Records
---
Amino acid sequence: MVPVNCKKRHQTLTLNTETKEMFKQTTFDFESLLEESAKIHGHLCPGQVLGVRMSMFGLSKIGIAEPKGKDRKNIIVFVEMDRCATDAVQSVTGCSLGHRTMKFMDYGKMAATFLNLKMGKAVRVIAREDSREKAKE
Ligand SMILES: [Zn+2]
């Protein structure tokens, strides 16, 4: 268990072992990505936890290891939410509306689609209803 201190809400976010297992295969470091996204977003909140997890999962599924490095020209992200988690997705993927690499689809879902342009591979990641509660844990 790795506790992450949340300064704003005075709560401790803990990674469960299931998620840690899942991310062991990826090259991403959850904690440093979360720290970075909380800094960009302005605070650490469940949306950051969700957005970082969704992005890590999505990117690894489409074979992107260095979203801000050699892979940065190969990704497009379609986000279906315009809330906290979107900032986390932007932070992890490096995609943004301004760079035209992030597209906002107003479907009102906590979901994002990650597209690898080079490989023609895409995956849509949806946050389960209970994941927001889990992210607060
Ligand atoms: Zn937030």
---
Amino acid sequence: MRPPREFENPLCAQVDGEVWFPEKGDNSTVAKTICGNCIHITECAEWGIKHEAFGIWGATTARMRQRIRKEKNILLEQPRVEDWLGNAKA
Ligand code: SF4
């Protein structure tokens, strides 16, 4: 599984960073709509479910991913060093 920073031309790279980390009560529709048009949505959501406690990843909110982790008994894991060094294995 590769980290989203390795995705080719992700749509989020074209949009202000604050959109991706909404505060409680903020509307996340813009970010989720952008994700809905991104070719990496599935891979990104899988990464987010496994590794991200905050922000919008693959059109999922932090709360959505928390619920998915609970339902599927998935533990949130810190990314491995290899993931961030760019030589992650799928
Ligand atoms: S799915 Fe969304 S957060 Fe993930 S790479 Fe695409 S635009 Fe960025």
